[in-house]
Amino acid sequence: MGVEIKVEGLTKKFGSQMIWNDVTLTLPAGEISVMLGPSGTGKSVFLKTLVGLLKPDAGSIWINDRDLTRLREHDLYEVRKLFGVLFQDGALFGSMNLYDNVAFPLREHTKKNESEIKRIVTEKMELVGLAGAEGKLPGEISGGMRKRAGLARALVLDPEILLIDEPDSGLDPVRTSYINQLFIDLNAQIDATFLIVTHDINTARTVPDNIGLLYHKHLAMFGPREMLLSSEEPVVRQFLNAQTIGPIGMSEEKDADELAQEQGQELPPLPPIALQLQTSDGTRRRAERPAGEWCRENGVVPPPGSFMSKNAGVPGVSQHTAHTEHAEPERAVS
């Protein structure tokens, strides 16, 4: 089962350049969280800081009642065994075939014999759909297969926390959909705590249990998926719905003249909130909540057409009459 990660007042600088300041959030145990943000806001830096590859300038990262920022190198090494990391490009060794790439953490960090290593590697490669590709080199396979091989390697030590950096980078929409479904299925099977850094809005709208948004050197918002997808907070609304009206510009922030020109312009309506992706076999994930539950509990009326299913009847029905059982979601239409 995954573990909770509690981040308090985390601050990171490179020299005089502030990357982000006073970031505070809790990644719930066993849940899928997504971290968004415009380019250059330090999302990948945040992942590297969580796993202890970068040291923050201030703040704490609590895992199992231990603050990673204050651990000695030996103790930090032990805590890192809780993590599996999928880097943006897969970070595979080009001279090793996929089998040896996936086996590498087992050979490096355990005393398992080759028979046991083979069993584990075969199991993880089957899990990510790479059975039969063990002998291929990274240069002989597609980008999507390299991502899945990197994911298999991240899974071989049975991590309780999975950090995933830009899984959609370099992938077409179809392959992105496949890997998103794989994350949902994996979370149901291993119950690990997931943190995914991505720019893909469809991923953010349909995969996670929680969403965070880094913007202008701080955490703009973090919370349940439905909270952010129904938010009227300008930067959250603009980013999650890919709108041009709002504080984000081509160079991160719009200047005063650009913002003045937008005064009085009517914002497009919020698109419907799509149903969250379900597991391939229809089983319910432990972290999964019924569609619309957060909105009902907090008295928020979601956009019309939210939580629609192909089996839910007439288009235009809101979450108040949409079902909360498992079903295939329709695309959200604004």
From TrEMBL:
<dbReference type="GO" id="GO:0005524">
    <property type="term" value="F:ATP binding"/>
</dbReference>
<feature type="compositionally biased region" description="Basic and acidic residues">
    <location>
        <begin position="282"/>
        <end position="296"/>
    </location>
</feature>
<dbReference type="Pfam" id="PF00005">
    <property type="entry name" value="ABC_tran"/>
</dbReference>
<dbReference type="InterPro" id="IPR017871">
    <property type="entry name" value="ABC_transporter-like_CS"/>
</dbReference>
<dbReference type="InterPro" id="IPR027417">
    <property type="entry name" value="P-loop_NTPase"/>
</dbReference>
<dbReference type="GO" id="GO:0016887">
    <property type="term" value="F:ATP hydrolysis activity"/>
</dbReference>
<keyword id="KW-0067">ATP-binding</keyword>
<dbReference type="InterPro" id="IPR003593">
    <property type="entry name" value="AAA+_ATPase"/>
</dbReference>
<feature type="domain" description="ABC transporter">
    <location>
        <begin position="5"/>
        <end position="241"/>
    </location>
</feature>
<protein>
    <submittedName>
        <fullName>Phospholipid/cholesterol/gamma-HCH transport system ATP-binding protein</fullName>
    </submittedName>
</protein>
<keyword id="KW-0813">Transport</keyword>
<feature type="region of interest" description="Disordered">
    <location>
        <begin position="278"/>
        <end position="334"/>
    </location>
</feature>
<dbReference type="InterPro" id="IPR003439">
    <property type="entry name" value="ABC_transporter-like_ATP-bd"/>
</dbReference>
<keyword id="KW-0547">Nucleotide-binding</keyword>
<feature type="compositionally biased region" description="Basic and acidic residues">
    <location>
        <begin position="322"/>
        <end position="334"/>
    </location>
</feature>
